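tool_call predict_complex ligand=FE3-S4 cluster
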Amino acid sequence: MYLTREEERMFDGYYGEAVSLAIRVIVKVGEALGAERLIRVKHVHVSGASYSTVGEAGRRFIVDLAGKGAKFRVYTTVNPVGMDTEDPNAIPYAIITREYIRGQNDIINAFKAMGADLILTCTPYYTYIPDKLGLSVGDHVAWGESSAVVYGNSVMGVRTNREGGPLALMAGITGRTYYYGMHIDSFRIPTIRYVARRKPLDEAEAGILGELIATIHDDEKPPLIEAVFTSDPALRELSAALGAAGSIAMAYIPGVTPEKPPQGRLESIELDEELKRVVEERAPNETPDIVFVGCPHASMSDLEMLKLEMKKYSGRPKSKILVSTSRHVYLEALSKGLVGELESMGVSFIRDSCLIVSPFARRGVKPVVATNSFKAYFYLRKRGVPVYIAGIPRLVRASYGG
Ligand code: F3S
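tool_result ok
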């Protein structure tokens, strides 16, 4: 692989052990894929920050790296962790012991020592980050959170591969990644068209469509998705589902993806019928113990929508309504009085974390959950939790026993 003089110096240990180790890993992976060079990235978003996800081995690895003096050479932000850092008891059905808090804090402190911005969210695009870094179409970044990768490539037009947790870390330490895949124009041209045009899709339907596509799309190049999405949260849920149910890093969505449309006719697959069937099959038919919104982390518009729907009912919901969001969105909603309004209607907030990356229902009782997120549906089911999926209006109706 061709390396610049600066990259050679990194490789040879001129900048210390951690940088040398990091660039060697990136070069090795890049060479295995056939990349001819590295590329500078403007932003790195590291996943694998939750103690529940990375475990003791991951904690030791991250703490060791920080101990070796590793520092991020490029602006690096961090995914959610295993608990709300200000209120470890915010997540019900989760056993958070003192050892757990210690292990999680070790990881957080190691990232801090390396110079990370601890935004602790999977939706960096809903924070100040895009403005602060001036992220725009065509910028190269290295993101480790699969839902953000698909959203970034497909909606924002930035360029990133799905970097595994350690690879994103290495990209932060070197400011480089291998020039391959989604960084290259030719890899971003769709090959197959998936069509679901019967009606505009809400966030739950968009997620299920993402799942259907991810399970049949068997190509390194992106799918083209011809559908109408009702909102930005629907695009976010589509992205999260494409990332969770398969290995897709990008979708081309006409009218959304800021790149030139593909030329010529593509093979076309109709999904309307299948989508309708699966959506109906998974809708709530009992009052859930928990309604969960905010996977990926909720935006202001999700909170507004939730408030609007809850205002249609009187009294308190029968289900516990949980919203996970970034501290950034939470503080914005707090300053606008939205947090207070929602809390007064029976909503609880989880910041910095979510049900999936926390110890929620990993042991003991499995409450019935209803969510608007396919990704949450997918991972909670794997954990043995009974789950339903529907858009916010239907979830709220179910929470009031309707
Ligand atoms: Fe984010 Fe947790 Fe879902 S990290 S994408 S809210 S699984």
